Amino acid sequence: MRIQKVENVNLALDFIRSRNISLTNIGAEDIVDSNHKLILGMIWIIILRFTIEDINEEGLSAMDGLLLWCQRKTAPYKEVDVQNFSYSWQDGLAFCALIHRHRPDLLDFHALDKRDARGNMALAFEVAERHLGIPQLLDVEDVVDAAKPDERSVMTYVAQYFHAFSSLSKAETAGRRLGKFTDVMQSVYDMQHDYEARVGRLIAAVQAQQGEWRRTHFEAVYASARGLSDTFNKYKVTTKRTWTDEKIELDTLLGNIQTKRVTYNLAPFVPKPGLTPHDLEAAWTELAASEVRHRKAINQYIRESRDILQRNYGAEANAIRAVLSGISAELASLSGELSVQLATVDGLINRAKPVGASLRRLAELERQCTAANIDEHDYTVYSVEDLEYDSAMVTKALQKKARFIENQSAVRNMTNLTPAQLEEFEATFRYFDRDGSNVLNDVEFRAALDSLGHLFSDEEFASLYDQLSCGSDYITFEVYIRFMVELTEDQTTPEQLLQSFRVIAGEKEYVTEDDLRMSELSSPSIAYLVKAMPKSDVSADGFDYLAYLRGVFQR
After folding, report:
1. CA angle 402, 405, 409 (to 5 degrees)
2. Rounded alpha-carbon distances, angstroms, from residue 332 to 319, 325, 348, 396
3. CB atoms < 10 A from the CB of 20, how many?
4. Contact at 8 Å (CB) between 388 and 359?
5. Nearest-angstrom CA–CA distance, 212 and 531
6. In this predicted structure, what is the pLDDT of residue 294?
7. More confident residue, 352 or 413
8. How far apart are CA 401 and CA 348, in angstroms?
9. Which of 15, 112, 312, 475 has the fewest CB within 10 Å, making it most exposed?
């Protein structure tokens, strides 16, 4: 029997050696003879070879690799600090942390009583055996109550966790791989769908714009044509640029889709009919042609509207010039009775009034021409400024002519004045009537009198002006002429004669023979007066002209 036992054990040992496991200092007889120490050593070697030695974590193998794996998996749990395979496992929290990290559905780590080492250990062993298929190689007391838990026993048991979760990791890896592929396919699908949707929107927008241009109603009105031009220019720097950016982005997106499909060995992407790059390019080419046609139509109507503007301006300007020329011609040919002439001038003034409204219309046309960049006119040579000046001159001529006729009517019946005197008075009035109002204020009236040699003191002038103006602020031409006639007409009223003697006497109360000779009196007249006038009481060579006049007119 012993021999058979030894042969059977040798068969087992030969198999172990065939797996490159070195067995030293142990033979079949040691096992048959129940050498516990050697048997336990051999069992540890077998466990180490088949359970622990194939563990690899970041380049570390066997025990170091398993320890690093435990440390990495329990790192998020602040109550767990795995430094070895003995003391670090006594509170059972490290086992619970490994289970919770990989299967949080099996236990709630955060609800554990961290001080209940025995309860935590029992829970971990039970969950591991029931749900993870890990046999309970240890008893709770082997770890919790031991002064120093056996490292090899704990390591062997922990290795079961590594292998159990490694299998789980493989399934997770397969799931991640499939999930990654699904994510890629979803991403590619989303990109393809986005491309087709955006191409469809861009083509639809381009076609809608072309339809809007085809429906545009053109008018030969510059403001309307200019508005269409401004709208088109705004389209080019806003909508068209947005579309251009979108087209470039779509070209890039299509390239990215094809590159991504090549990266994952997928078939090339073929967009739906009507949404292909060829369809987009065709729509883009047709858009460019439509832009050219629309721009050409706008420019044509701008040219036509500019010509219409010039024609309207020319017609209005020439009509104004014709009216002004007609008025000037009739004014130049005036003749006949003064009353007829005045009525004719009044009629011409009424004909000239509508010219103001015509000039305002012409100014508006000029503004429109300026807005249309029309600097020179093809249908007239008259500018607004020219016609405004001509109109002002014609109006001024009519007003002057009317005043002239009125003044002539006023002086027509004046007597005892030569035409030269009347012309002098009228010319003086016109000279000092600087504003053309046909009236003189006090300053202008006094200046006119001074220029004619008629000097008055301030008191005399104030009284005279108040009398002639009848309390108003001016003196009319008719009042002025009548006063000048009265002032200068050769009449022999006592007042005029007294005034004449005073002038000759130099305001003295007497007049001398030498004073009389200094005047324009003839020698016979002087001789008569010297003989007729009484001697003055205040001057030996003077004559009392005041007494002479009283004696003459009292008789």
Report:
1. 140
2. 20, 11, 12, 14
3. 7
4. yes
5. 116
6. 92
7. 352
8. 11
9. 15
